[in-house]
Amino acid sequence: MIFLFAFLVGGAICAIGQLIMDISQLSAGHIMVMLVVAGAILGGLGLYEPLIRFAGAGATVPITSFGNALVQGALAEANRHGLIGILTGIFEITSAGMSAAIIFAFLAALVAKPKG
Prior knowledge:
Blueprint lengths: L1 H22 L4 H17 L3 H8 L1 H4 L3 H18 L1 H30 L4
Helix pairs in contact: 2-5, 5-6
């Protein structure tokens, strides 16, 4: 059943993004930011963790999970270190993902030889 729930929730998140893209004149970057902010708001309100427990990878793979990770890292470090923990927590939690994205994008650019 977890596979079905992951498929439905992940598909719903992607469908929402696609609907926004089709209906509005917003660029893909604007929609991506909207989804990250939505994940951050849901994470800050404590609503994203139950979604992760329900849908597993269906909730952790989409871009909304990045917003949730930012908020969770900031809150955890803010409890430990106060105001400065908000800034350090954001980078501590997400640094591995951001580093991997940069490295793999660089490697893909070497292989694909982009023209831009």
